[in-house]
Structure formats: C-alpha cells, structure tokens
Amino acid sequence: MGVEPDAAVDVEADVAVVGAGAAGLSLALRLARPPAGARRVTAVLLAAPPGPFRAAPRTWCYWEAGAGPYDEVLTASWQRLRVRSGDGRAVDAAIAPLRYKMLRSDAFEALAGREIGASPHVTRVEAVVDRVGSARDGALVHARRADGGRVAVRARWVFDSRPPEHLPPARTTLLQHFRGWFVRTRRPVFDPATVELMDFRTPQPAHGLSFGYVLPTGPREALVEYTEFSRRALDRDAYDRALRHYTTRILGVGDHEVTACEQGAIPMTDADFPRRAGASVFRIGAAAGATRPATGYTFSAVQRQTRAVAAALHAGRRPLPPRAHSARSRLMDAVLLHALDHGRVDGPAFFTRLFARVPAPRLLRFLDGRTSLPEDLSVGLHVPVPAMLGSALALPFVPRRNSPAT
C-alpha cells in the first residue's frame, strides 16, 4: 500500500471506522463513550446508506454473566439451553450465572445512532467506501455518497470491518449457513424459558451436519432456524423445504405465519486473518478473525477486541487489535474442523455428548475461549480422543489453500 499524494480532504479525524456492522458500531460506541480522564479521540463512522451495500437486519446471540451494556435493547434472554440428539433425547442445561442473549441488529443500530448522535466525539457519514490508502501520518479513506458525491476522510488510524474479498488460505473451511423464520403460531407451542440450541432431529446431510435452532420470544413467537455446517450453502427453496419440515413435522407447531426471514453464511475456517492492512490501517471484527472457527459465534469476541482497541486509543497507545482467540483455542478449533470435514467424528453425537457431560457454564466459557488449561483438559476428556488425535497428527501435513469468501 503506497503513500497517496496530498489530495482534497473533506473530513479529518483521529480515527476512521469503516463499516457499521457489529464491529464498526461497537468500536464507534466505545469511542462515543470515553471513560473519565481519557485522551480525547475524534472519530468518523463510515456507514453504507440504505440500498444494496447495507446489510439486511440480522440477529446476534451471545452469553455473558449479569447485566451488559446492550441489555436495554435485547429482544430476549434466557438461562436455560436444550440440545436434542438425533433420536430425540433432550439434554437440558441451566447456565446461571450466564445469560444467553438475543440482540437484533436494527435495535443495536438504533442504540448506536442515539449515542453517536449525542456524542461530540464521533461523526457518522453515510457513504460506501471504495478505497483506503496510506497517507502521510495516517491514511485516506475514499467513499461515495448515495447521491454520487465523493467524500475523502483523513485519519491517523483506520479500522476496516468490511468482509474480505477472499478468505485467507486455510487447511479447512466449512460454512455455517442458515435460514430462519420468525414464526407466530395460533396456539402456545414454545417454551419461553429455554433456547433449543441444537436440535439434531433434522435429516443429516451427506457431508457435515445440520440442526434446528429455536429462540422463543413468547409462547407463540420464536425465531426458528435451519442450520448446516458443510462446504456449500443451499438455495432458498432448499432452506424453506428444510424449515417447513422442521417446523411442521418435527416441532409440530400447527397453524402459523412467517412474519419475517433472515439468512446468512459464516465461514468456519482455520485461516489466519491479518489484523493489519497498512501502516495505519487495521482490520476488526470477523475480518480480523473474531469468528470462533468451531461455532461461528462472533459478537462476544468483537466486544473484547473493540474494547481493547478503544482502550489503546484513549491511552494514546498503538491500537493494534488483539487476536480474538488464543493460540490454544485456534489449534483446538482447527483439529475439530478437520475432524468434522473428514468424517472422523459424528457431529451430532459429538456436540450432544459435550452438553450432556460438561457443566453448561463451563462449556460455554470453553466455547468463548475463557477457560484455563486444566478446564480445557477436563472438557477434552469427553471428546473422541482417537479421532481428534488423528486429525491433530494430520494437520501439519495439510496445505493451506485459498477459498472464496461468502
């Protein structure tokens, strides 16, 4: 990335945040809420205007102990999870002191909009970024407004949350792909106190695994998703057939209406995501490896990463985003992905066994990368050791290959 010549600049700030998804909004919110005595930091949030470049509304789920900074805009939260094996055996788990939380992106955007709008530290600019280049003492961000007008932002530091055009080389890349229906039923059929985290009664694909996922927001309302871990996404008709089968044949919800839909695909990969794109340009969020490879969960890691970046900026330190997951966590995930991809483990049996034998709060902390080495070893006692060892021994000989971004 060469240094650009001096050019007309429309906006100058200490920080430019590119993209208004979970990572971009989280960082902008933290800069809009500086702690007492912090170094003053000005920021520009570059968010795509309404249209094809703005992401569709989506749901983020995460777990944390006690109250959190976004509780006022949660759709729902729960302290019980359920996993069902393929033969219908239910494993119910209380997760206190943790809570499993459901946050809709439009509610999060509204909260961020209110706080950023009231902050003297952060300015929002609606424009689509098409180029980020190094400049003297920082970087230049070039963007296009909805009316076709151009805007240039000069910043000391740039944090780019946009998905990469291509995923980095990896030994294993699967997709967690899904489609969900927001369902309203005629009669009460859902348990509002319990999330169906993984329901493996769905027909299993030839490669990978599938499960149902139910987030009940009331006795008659829920987000019902069909999810697969596999190499390729399905078309919309295939998802809808799977959802129709799951809601009517497996859940038996009876008469219902679908009030809204959401769909997505999350790369589950052992790729090493670069956190730096230039001398003053960093990546954050999923673009910087915040997605946990073995589960697809991202939101909690985004919070840790943006919290560290904001703290560095407010302290006047170099704000290189930290790795979202430890080396030990990434290695364990790489082994599991390889084992799943090569059929060494039965995915539904693997996850059902973990939830049946490991205390749920510990398992959730493990999935979030917050357990100690002894705790990791205690979880490891309940995995199929020969299969996992086989993948661990094979991994050093597996070449990293390029794969397309979703």
Summarize the structure.
By secondary structure, the chain is of the alpha+beta class.
Task: Explain the overall architecture.
By secondary structure, the protein is α+β, with helices and mostly antiparallel strands. It has 2 domains: 11-56 and 104-164 and 273-315, 3-Layer(bba) Sandwich (FAD/NAD(P)-binding domain), CATH 3.50.50.60; 170-271 and 327-406, D-Amino Acid Oxidase, Chain A, domain 2. Helix content is 27%, strand content 34%. The protein contains 9 helices and 20 strands. Strands 1, 2, 8, 9, 10, 11, 18 and 19 form an 8-stranded mixed sheet that branches. It has a 7-stranded mixed sheet with strand order 6-5-14-15-16-13-17, sandwiched between helices. α1 runs parallel beside α4 (299-315). 42% of the residues are buried.
Write the layout of secondary structure elements.
Elements: E1 11-18, H1 22-32, E2 43-47, E3 59-65, E4 76-78, E5 80-84, E6 90-94, E7 98-104, H2 105-117, E8 122-126, E9 128-135, E10 138-144, E11 150-160, E12 166-170, E13 173-185, E14 195-199, E15 209-218, E16 221-230, H3 236-250, E17 256-269, E18 276-278, E19 281-283, H4 299-315, H5 327-341, H6 347-357, H7 360-367, H8 373-380, H9 385-394, E20 401-404
Parallel strand pairs: 1-2, 1-11, 2-8, 5-14, 11-19
Antiparallel strand pairs: 3-7, 4-7, 5-6, 9-10, 10-11, 12-20, 13-16, 13-17, 14-15, 15-16, 18-19
Helix pairs in contact: 1-2, 1-4, 5-9
